[in-house]
Amino acid sequence: MHSLKKIVQFIHQNKTTLTGMFLGAVLAYIYWINWGIYYGTYPLSSECWVNCIYGNLFGGLLACLLFNNGLKERDSDKEKE
């Protein structure tokens, strides 16, 4: 039961990043379905799982860069008060 609380706490603390990762993977899959090169030597477009992993990582990175900075600034403002 204690480990379940840790998992829920981790998800709650990182929901922005996890949401970005999920959306990145979904968008990468949609890209692969519509515009991916099925037969070729370019591994990013020819394999669905590679495309989804790159989308997952890129989506998480963008979510961290765009949305977590505002949260850190608000937290530092609260600490000053």
Describe the structure.
Keywords: Membrane, Transmembrane, Transmembrane helix. The chain crosses the membrane at residues 21-41, 53-71. With 81 residues, the chain is mostly helical. It has one domain (19-80). Helix content is 86%, strand content 0%. It is built from 4 helices and no strands. The chain has helices at 2-13, 15-35, 43-46, 48-80. Helix 2 (15-35) runs antiparallel to helix 4. The chain is elongated, with a radius of gyration of 17 Å. 14% of the residues are buried. The mean pLDDT is 83.
Give a quick rundown of the structure.
By secondary structure, the chain is an all-alpha fold. The chain has helices at 2-13, 15-35, 43-46, 48-80. It has one domain (19-80).
Mean pLDDT: 83
What is the SS-derived class? mainly alpha
Radius of gyration: 17 Å
**Helical content band:** over 70%
The number of distinct helices, counting runs of at least 4 residues, comes to 4
Q: How do the SSEs run, as a string of H and E?
A: HHHH
Low-confidence stretches: none
Topology:
Elements: H1 2-13, H2 15-35, H3 43-46, H4 48-80
Helix pairs in contact: 2-4
Keywords: Membrane, Transmembrane, Transmembrane helix
Transmembrane segments: 21-41, 53-71
Features:
elongated, 81 residues, mainly alpha
